[in-house]
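Structure ticket #2291
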Amino acid sequence: MKKGVKFTALALAASLMFTYPLCNGITADAAAPLKTVESSNVPTKYTGMSLSILGDSLSTFNDYIPRDYNIFYPGNSGIPMVEGTWWYQVLNATGMRLCSNASSANTNVTGNSLATDGSAPGCSFRRIMDLKGANGTSPNVIVIYMGVNDFARDIPLGSFKAPSLQTEGTPATFSSAYELMLLKIKTLYPDAAVYCCTLFARDPGLRAPGTNTPVNRNGDSIMDFNKQIRAIAAAYGASVIDVYNCGITYDNLSVFTSDGVHPNLPGAQLFANCVTAALVNS
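Resolution: structure written out below.
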């Protein structure tokens, strides 16, 4: 890691409260308000609560993310309307309202944690501060789906053993960055229910020697990344949503994605059903 300031939870809370420069004036308040969700669903225990999403391209939609963030949906994605996105379907099914969608396409969990532009990584202050809604309101629920770009870009996986001090700058491994991200989230939003999603199939075209297991150039599989996500989530008191088993597999990527990576309408429905079931049954 680059040299920086190591911190405890208390030190982090103080830095977030008093010293963090808020993103050149652009925060989650810049996101357009979500349309009213008309739903005939039976009310759930989440009805009236607020949801924030921390994600990459899979969770974007034009006018629903901060203005300097990178957009993927709608584009040529197979999801032309926001109501078809996985997260809008979750809002509709649970009765929650959108607090903030801090999702930016083409971003990793790993990267410079002090970056303040719209391409800042998931471990950055920028992305985590943008989980706040209008007027600085905090979400009741936070759902995280990030890591597939780290996998595809061959970011070293690392190995999480136990909670440890992290350093601001650029974490050396995915595991360190994911831990830094969760530490900040749990410190800044202590009352929020945090859910970490495992990653569904993405085929980089390589195979582990002697197997048919898709791996990146470091020899790591999506399952390896998911193992680290599970371990870090457990250590920091976050729940896990097993999106890996939502129904999108290596064999049906052409059916449920528009390009082998991004869910189309049927794929987003599988994604949404998985997240909704996990929330309602938790």
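Closing remark: The beta strands are 50-55, 97-103, 141-145, 193-197, 206-207, 214-215, 239-241.
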